[in-house]
Write a sequence for this structure.
């Protein structure tokens, strides 16, 4: 059903899901493509085009059922299947990840946390005791693990990924700049490059300043 | 010079900058578009096309000077101008942001941190004493501030943004799901939606599993 859908459209689906979740929580039953576009700061034609990629859920003149559309997009994203996940790194970034995200609503369950620094081992995060990173092999052999979250500096990630790959882990949420997908061709990786986002902001501030100066 | 360059190309420049920084640190003087493409897991034609948008820095047969190309991209991104920044939120996420990023290399300087929780006020982060969030108005009036980093939950961000906007702050690095650009039309906002990234990973894991099952 989702064959041939571009990654650009896929990348927009979490946003739809997020806004539809809010609409449903606010008690909205149905929504037109115009209104959905307005909520999402998108265009009605973009919304219709995106949703048509998946067979189109709208009824002419009635708009979309918020509940059904949200459920369908959730299914397309696979959020109804929970992936067993471990987090490597319990420093500030790892802590932020462990405490801020509603993993279960996003298709994941965080089951274990590993850390090299002995000062952090044994602490509790999200009700999980942080284990020493030497325990990774034993844990992954004894427990089903699909995904690893890597909240480590780049130089530590190369070695850790080698170990995780050898254990059969093929999906990674990577906060470092180490390019996992370049090394292994049968993995899926989502990278979060915070510094790239900050540089983009820098560019856009300068463009804003230029346009203000031109107006003056 | 950068008029009419699409945001897609702009969004790729931080990546170029990041890889070129590494190449320069490793002592690489010159690089061909083919090799740069290989390092970046891109294609040579994409690389040439992207860099041509800015006037083209390569010499036929000689490739690009890593140092000059990095410097030029840094200038286009405006990293040579440092933007005075404050961070709102010193919880786990704020801590991770304050401690992990090389702001000065990314065009920013973090000058103050504000937090509502009295337990966190007075602590030191990156050599900066965390101030109570009631001090924001006084601080911004006394000090030049261009940018605010919002490491707060969505429900707190609406009110904080109102205060910051009233103080004249027009650029935001936003980690919440509150849509600042929808409310104010003369601001620049870079959003980091970690949950969207995690949902995209979920989708891609399921697609990977399907393709493996089809092969079997």
């Amino acid at each position: 059903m989702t064959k041939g859908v571009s990654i650009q459209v896929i990348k927009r689906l979490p946003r739809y899901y997020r806004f539809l979740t809010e609409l449903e929580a606010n008690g909205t039953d149905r929504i037109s493509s115009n209104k959905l576009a307005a909520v999402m700061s998108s265009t009605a034609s973009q919304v219709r085009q995106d949703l048509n990629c998946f067979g189109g859920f709208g009824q002419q003149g009635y708009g979309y059922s918020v509940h059904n559309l949200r459920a369908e997009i959730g299914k397309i994203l696979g959020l109804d299947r929970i992936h067993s996940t471990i987090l490597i790194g319990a420093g500030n970034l790892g802590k932020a990840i462990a405490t801020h995200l509603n993993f279960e609503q996003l298709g994941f369950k965080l089951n274990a946390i590993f850390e090299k620094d002995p000062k952090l081992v044994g602490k509790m995060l999200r009700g999980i005791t942080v284990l020493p990173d030497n325990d990774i092999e034993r844990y992954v052999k004894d427990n089903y693990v699909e995904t690893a979250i890597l909240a480590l500096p780049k130089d530590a990630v190369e070695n850790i990924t080698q170990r995780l790959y050898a254990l059969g882990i093929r999906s990674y949420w990577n906060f470092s700049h180490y390019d996992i997908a370049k090394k292994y061709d049968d993995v899926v990786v989502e990278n979060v490059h915070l510094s790239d986002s900050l540089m983009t902001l820098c560019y856009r501030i300068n463009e804003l300043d230029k346009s203000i100066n031109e107006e003056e």
In short: Strands of chain B lie at 30-31, 64-65, 83-88, 108-115, 124-125, 128-132, 147-150, 171-174, 188-191.
